[in-house]
Design brief:
Shape: rod-shaped
Radius of gyration: 26 Å
Keywords: Membrane, Signal, Transmembrane, Transmembrane helix
Order of helices and strands: HHHHH
Structural class: mainly alpha
Largest sheet: none
Helix content: 55-70%
């Protein structure tokens, strides 16, 4: 029971300190918005042969760049058949249900020990 509690606490602190933070700070989002306005839609990055802006090619995943990798990561997390946030919520629900079952078993064992017949002296 002590090992299980230790592992549960380790999982809790891992989720709390490592998985709940947004990797995109407000300054990063502002930089992305500025990039979109200044670079993504600029005339110098416009593909006049096909009629696509840099942002359009980025959304169609036709680029080989850092921006494309960032967009791909966000797209896969948010819009795939099983979005990442749903998978995370399901994992936490499964963990909570497992913890409830373990807690119930501990309570049942405690009640069983409490109700054992006692020796009279």
């Amino acid at each position: 029971m002590i090992v299980n509690s230790g592992l549960q606490l380790a999982l809790f602190f891992t989720v709390f300190f490592d998985m709940l933070q947004n990797p995109y700070s407000s300054t990063k989002v502002k930089e992305m918005v500025q990039w979109r306005a200044l670079q993504g839609h600029s005339n110098s990055n416009f593909d006049s042969d096909n009629g696509y802006s840099l942002v359009n090619r980025l959304c169609q995943q036709k680029l080989w760049s850092f921006e494309q990798e960032e967009y791909k990561e966000m797209f896969e997390y948010l819009y795939m058949p099983m979005p990442g946030w749903i998978l995370s919520v399901l994992a936490i629900i499964m963990w909570v249900l497992t913890m409830m079952a373990e807690y119930r078993r501990c309570c049942e064992q405690g009640l069983a020990l409490w109700n054992l017949p006692r020796l009279k002296r």
